[in-house]
Each structure stands twice: as C-alpha cells, then as structure tokens.
Amino acid sequence: MLITRRATFSASHYYWNPDWSPEQNLAVFGKCANRAGHGHNYTLEVTVSGSVDPVTGFLVDLKWLKDLIEHEVLDVYDHRHLNLEVPEFAHTIPTTENISIAIWNRLVPAIASASTARLTTVRIYETPEIFAEFSGGQA
Amino acid sequence: MLITRRATFSASHYYWNPDWSPEQNLAVFGKCANRAGHGHNYTLEVTVSGSVDPVTGFLVDLKWLKDLIEHEVLDVYDHRHLNLEVPEFAHTIPTTENISIAIWNRLVPAIASASTARLTTVRIYETPEIFAEFSGGQA
Amino acid sequence: MLITRRATFSASHYYWNPDWSPEQNLAVFGKCANRAGHGHNYTLEVTVSGSVDPVTGFLVDLKWLKDLIEHEVLDVYDHRHLNLEVPEFAHTIPTTENISIAIWNRLVPAIASASTARLTTVRIYETPEIFAEFSGGQA
Amino acid sequence: MLITRRATFSASHYYWNPDWSPEQNLAVFGKCANRAGHGHNYTLEVTVSGSVDPVTGFLVDLKWLKDLIEHEVLDVYDHRHLNLEVPEFAHTIPTTENISIAIWNRLVPAIASASTARLTTVRIYETPEIFAEFSGGQA
Amino acid sequence: MLITRRATFSASHYYWNPDWSPEQNLAVFGKCANRAGHGHNYTLEVTVSGSVDPVTGFLVDLKWLKDLIEHEVLDVYDHRHLNLEVPEFAHTIPTTENISIAIWNRLVPAIASASTARLTTVRIYETPEIFAEFSGGQA
Amino acid sequence: MLITRRATFSASHYYWNPDWSPEQNLAVFGKCANRAGHGHNYTLEVTVSGSVDPVTGFLVDLKWLKDLIEHEVLDVYDHRHLNLEVPEFAHTIPTTENISIAIWNRLVPAIASASTARLTTVRIYETPEIFAEFSGGQA
Fold first, then answer.
1. Which of A34, B16, C39, C127 is the most exposed, having the fewest neighbouring CB atoms within 10 Å of its CB?
2. Tens digit of pLDDT for each residue in A112-128?
3. DSSP labels for C2-18?
C-alpha cells in the first residue's frame, strides 16, 4: 500500500558550474545558465509505504504528512532562490534530479523518527513536462 | 505491458471509530469526523497487466474494462454515502487507503473470471493532492 | 483589469424538494435525490475588478482575498453537508447555480466593506465538467 | 468570434517598493519581498477577436500568433528575472496585474501592424490559483 | 447566471482549400494540409444563460443538456473524420473557428425549441493550447 | 533515479483487422473501426534511468532528450495518419498498447547509442482516461 501527498512551491534557480568558463556554462546549460535566475512552480509528490492501521484506516495521518512536508521542505524552499538561500545547493546545482535527492534526504530521517511508514518515492515536477523521481539508494 | 483506465465518481463519507468518544474522533480525524458527512469527486485508475493479443492489438478490451468498472464500482459507489450505503464500509472507515483495498477486492474476481489480464494496481485520488495505491498482498 | 483567486472545498449535498413526493424528486433529480447525500470537490473562482494601485501594483492584496474567501466561504462550506449544516441551504436546494448565488451574497458585503475592488464574478465547478457563473443582478 | 492561444514561460521576480523601508516591504509583500527572488511557471492566454476569413477558415493564422507571442513576449520574459532584466519592470513591480498590462502593451502594436484581428484579452496565470486579465483601457 | 457543461470528442480533420494548388495549401496550412488527416481530442464547453427556477434550483436540467450535446454534436462528430463525414464541413474547412460556429448552429435551435435558456457561448479546445469561442452574431 | 520528459502529438488512426469481415471489425472495434479515421491528442511520457552526473547534475540533458523525442517520434507521428503513413502500423493495429511498443522500439537504440542512460518506460495517453505503459521485454 502506498499513499501520496502532493504539495507545491515556487522558487528561483540557475544552473552554473563554477569550475567552468561562462562560455562552457552557456554551452551546456543554455538559458538556464542566466545568473539573474529564473523560476518555477514546482509540484512535489511524496509517497510513503506501509500497512494500514485497522483502528484508523490510515497508513499515515495525512495531516501530519502535510505538516512535515511544510516544515521540512516548503519552509526552506518556497519563495526562495535555491542556489543562494538553500544550504544543500550552495555547491550542488539545483537540477530537477538533485532537488529530488535533496528532498529525499530531508524527509527520510523526519519520517523515520516519527512513523512506521517508509518513504518510498519523491517525485518533483519542474514543469508539467519534466519530472524526476528518486527512490533512495545510489543516485 | 500495462494499460490503465480512469473513471470518476462522487460520494460522501466521514471518518469515525465507534469505539472512541466523540472527543477522540475529533482529535484524530479533525473535520473529517463531522457525522453529517462531506464528499469528494474521486478519480479511480485501474491498471491491468498482460500480453498484447496480436489479433486485436489489445491487452484488454477497454470498453469491457470500462463497463466492468461501471458495474463493479461506480454503480455501488457513485452518488452514494460510503459509510451508510456501501456494505464494505459498514464497519471499516472509508479512508483513501481502505477505498483502494475495497475496489481491489471488487475488481480482482471480476477481472480474473473474464480475462487473462491481471489486475495490477488500483489508484484512487480523493483530491488532486492525495492518492492511495494498492497492488494486492497484505494491506 | 480583473484578478481571480481559486479555492477548493469538499462538501456533501443532495437535491430534494420537500413539496414533492419521493417519486417526483427521483424523477427530476435522479441519483442526486439520494437523501444519504453524496459529495464533490468544488473549485471556486472569485473574480474582482478595479484599478491597479501604482504603489503596490495590486488590484487587491491576494493574501487578503485568500483569507476573506477562507473566512466567508471555506470555514462554513468545507467538510460540511450543505443541506444540513449551511443556513442558506436549509430551504434552498444547493445546486451549482444556487451555490454560486450564495457565495456571491456572502462575498459582496465582505469585499465592499474592506476594499475599493468590486466583486465581478463567482464561478463554481461542481466537477471539471460542470460550472456555474454568477455576476450579480437577477438570478 | 474569439480565438485564444496559450503559451508558458518561467521567470523570477520579487515585490519591492524602493520608496519603502525593508520592514514596510515585508509587511505588505510578505515572502514575495525576498530580494533573492523566487519564480513561477507562468501561463499566458492571448485572445484576439475578429471575423473568420472564408477562404482559410482562420480568424488569425495561429502559427503566426504563436511566433508573435514568442518574439514579443517569450524571448524577453522566459528564463529571465523580470525585475532585473525586463525593461518595463525596472521601476514597476512585476505583479500579476502589471505583467498582464505589460504583455498587452507589447502585443497591441505587434498585432495591429500585421493583422485585422484585434487583441481582446491577455490572461496570465502566476499559479493555477491566481490569474489576472487585462482587456485594455485604464488599468 | 450562466451554466456550462463540458464534453469531449475525438475526430480527424485536415485543412485544404480545393481552389488552391497543393503548394499553396502547404504554404498556408503547413502540416495541417496533410490529406491523410490527423486528429484531436476536442473539448467542448457549452454555456447557457437564463434564470434559476426556484422550484428546482436549475437554470437548465444538466442531464438534459448533456443528452442534447450528445445527440446534436457527439453522435455526429465523435470518432468521425470531420471533412469526409460531417455535412457542414463538406465545403467548409473544419478549423477551430468553424467548428465553434457549426456547433453553435446545431445547438441554437435544439435549445430554443425545448428550453427557456439561451445558448450564450460555444467554446472549443482543439488542444489545451488553442481554443475558439463563438457567441453568435456575425462570425 | 528516473527522469521523465513529456511530449504531445496529434494523429489519426483506426482499428481494423484485414483478416476479418467488416461486421467482425465493427463488432470488436466499435466506432474505432470507422475507416475514415478519427484522431487524438496523444501525450507521451518517456522515462529514463541512470545515475546523476556530479559535474552537471543531469541524469540526461533534457534538451537532448527533447530533441531525440522530436526526431525519433514526433517528426514521424505528429499530424500523421498512423495506419496510412507510419511504417510500423502498416500491418499492426495502432492501439494504445502497440503505439507504446513502437515508440519503445524507436527510442531504445537512439538512447543507447548516445547516452549511458537506459530507457525505462514509455507511457502513452490516448485520452486523459486511457494510457498504456511499456517497459520492454515481452509485450
């Protein structure tokens, strides 16, 4: 059994490898290399697995999961510039892939410490056309 | 190979454990504990697996699957109060998780008796922000 | 200039005219006449018109409009049975049309007392397939 | 007869009135006042009116309209920081309302100079929950 | 008061002016000029206006409107090749604009003969990115 | 780690088994057997798996994947009649299932020859209500 909660946040980012020349950054990252930044409405889907409690009918309390996503992710990412204001992206490019890993790393301990449910998948949509999905293990 | 058919139904429900006091129900279930009921437009996705018939190009006849979902699920759930009118929720709280299990239990024998395809997943959206997914086995 | 804010709520309702026999209710209202109730995820769009304040760039403060919709509508409608718990539907059938009028009547004085913006339209979706739109005047 | 073409772009912005103290900006604009910027996937709907050419069946050539939106708007706004890189927002706060006016002002002369169709409405979604609509005249 | 009902149909079409050379058709209509045809999932929104019947709470019976759209439009358009099988497009190019006019012409008498409601707008989406809207009068 | 890119195309098709009588085709395929053809806006989701390059933060360059989908699939399928113009459907019925296999077969070598990423899943929506998913192996 899996249950998923969706959330959204709006953030800025850019793609830039400081070991490269501006020309190389532009060649690889195109318009995403613009250092003034651009942004997205990200949609996040957090999926947890576990067994259904026969007393409540819940795998997890979705109000608890919503609050946890809010505290662990949205309070840090929403209305922020990911490169400049979110610590895990100080030296890591905030691509869709890396954002899914970073959110996974934030949620795993928070869920493990407070629930018998297990984080199964973090899916993040940068736009409706692009999404990454991380399920742990080697990235 | 998997093929999925989506359907929608509108129903009422509430969350209430009769072994608990009203205060405890309110504490755990919040506004979902309102006994007057509230409702949702549920979206159901039924996924079956199997092999493609080289004569028809079909894994299953989707018109048949649509009718089966209609008879087995929508005729019983649509425009109904799940707690009060649907037998499997007489003593089971109709959470998103439990609805996915109940629909699974309705569809498995109906599909097995009439097709070589195998039910793989039942996904049910309570709102666009919340969905449960059951693939059989222990719930 | 128009600006619109969307909100959602989940509620139960049924269609029933107490002056009619059960047979007549069933004939006119079909499965919506089920007195156990059924429900929907309603989507509400509130559109206001006015001029843009050159100091803020706002027609209205959307945070204020969000809070107003929450207090005036969602706190009363969300997770409620419209017929049984919302006063304006005690003797009025909560059809999509009548819900749009009732929300209009709730919002007009609240907006007029606190803003120079003018409520222009209330659009309410019962499902993605059905929506009513009220812009004041004779209903 | 109206015909509408939708387009999307991703951009950063912040809300800041330079005549105000930081405290006042924070009080009015909340988290949108963050000078590092945040961003959105904007959806733009451009509606033109006119009569249908009996020879082509077109009110306008939608390929032409798509290219025009691309040249006049997307090339300037997409993957840009609106406050820092788009001239019309150097001294105007890029609220949803002001973006709709700015796009209107870009499109009116471009359409008028090349078509008998008339720009009727610019609708811009900042998120699926918020959209502004400008139809000319006094803003 | 307006109420809208949405419906969908899938159809083929191509754009071709028989008075033109193939080269001219290709120059004006691009890949839409392919005579083998291509197709779309069209979404139709039919909006009617009128007053709310205080006895039913209905502007129109939406079940009736759904059936009417089905009989007048879907039975003729769905799973059809518009140019080859729908009479009004034998000599008229089935552009989005012309489809909205043709549906309007089908619905106006059907609604007028059976209801006090008035057809207000026919909106047709060819894709989520393109829609035409006809409200009567000169096209 | 998985990353998915969505694309859309519009095409015509019909379902017809030339070994059957017209009556049998009609009995099995219903209105899809109409030889004039009908069409859809297909939505394609291409999912690839692999590891994230620490230098770019990319599993694959999504611009490259977009171009590859365009060259390998859209250039051949978009605004085409699948039965009449796409070689793999000359003798294979273009059902949703078979389209997912055909796109898989087009993409596997193209991705393998140019990337260390592995094609994981091809999902194709014929309408929002129906989608097939192929992950390789025996169809």
1. C127
2. 998 899 999 999 999 99
3. EEEEEEEEEEEE----T
What pLDDT is stored for residue F111 in this prediction? 96
Q: Do C3 and D130 touch (CB under 8 A)?
A: yes
pLDDT at A63: 97
Amino acid at C44: L
Closest CA to D90 of D82, D98, D99, D102: D82
Q: Quick check: B40 and B79 in contact, CB under 8 A? A: no
The model's confidence at residue D60, banded by pLDDT at 50, 70 and 90, is: very high
Which residues make beta-bridge pairs with F46? Answer: F5, F122
Instruction: Kindly provide the ipTM of the predicted complex, given to two decimals.
Output: 0.96
Q: To which H or E segment does residue B133 belong?
A: strand B130-134
Place of tokens 């509606």: D47
Q: Which domains does chain C have, with CATH numbers?
A: 2-134 (3.30.479.10)
Of C2, C57, C62, the CB nearest to D133: C2
Three-state SS across chain D? CEEEEEEEEEEEECCCCCCCCHHHHHHHHHHHHCCCCEEEEEEEEEEEECCCCCCCCCCCCHHHHHHHHHHHHHHHHCCEEHHHHCHHHCCCCCCHHHHHHHHHHHHHHHHHCCCCCEEEEEEEEEECCEEEEECCCCC
**Least CA distance to E134: which residue of chain D?**
D1
Q: Do A39 and D34 touch (CB under 8 A)?
A: no
Contact (CB<8Å) A12/D41: no
Asked whether the predicted pLDDT for residue D139 surpasses 90, the reply is no
Subunits with at least 3 CB pairs below 8 A relative to chain F?
A, B, E
Q: How far does E4 lie from chain C, in Å, by closest CA?
A: 5
Cα(A109)–Cα(B133) distance, rounded to whole angstroms? 23
Q: Sort A87 into a burial class: Cβ within 10 Å, 0-12 / 13-18 / 19+.
A: exposed
Annotated active-site residue D40? The verdict is: no
